[in-house]
Design a protein that fits this description.
Blueprint lengths: L2 H27 L5 H17 L2 H16 L6 H10 L19
Helix pairs in contact: 1-2, 2-3
Length: 104
């Protein structure tokens, strides 16, 4: 892969991140909580996970947890798996892991 291609991917990744962050902010300010809201947060969480941006991922995961608890449709099992599998910087190693039966 050429340096130019790698640079383009980084720039596009930052652009996508900024656009999704702006969409999330608009949805929050306007208090829109629909299936589309879940899609935006899920998409941004996946992008953050792919780029290793744990702060963004954890923010998305937190909001998604609340959206799923409200009964909004989404990829609940996928994000439960992330929550169970991935380390959380806010959880000490001594606390118990979430059981698969716990809701996100």
């Amino acid at each position: 892969m050429s340096r130019l291609t790698m640079r383009r991917r980084r720039v596009l990744g930052r652009y996508d991140n900024d656009q999704l962050k702006a969409m999330r902010q608009d949805l929050t300010v306007q208090r829109i909580r629909t299936a589309f809201t879940c899609e935006v947060y899920e998409c941004h969480a996946r992008l953050a996970l792919k780029s290793g941006d744990w702060g963004e991922f954890n923010q998305c995961q937190t909001v998604l947890s609340g959206l799923y608890k409200e009964g909004l449709p989404g990829c609940t099992t996928e994000f439960l798996a992330y929550r169970v599998r991935l380390p959380s910087p806010y959880r000490s190693t001594r606390t118990r892991a979430l059981s698969p039966t716990e809701r996100v």
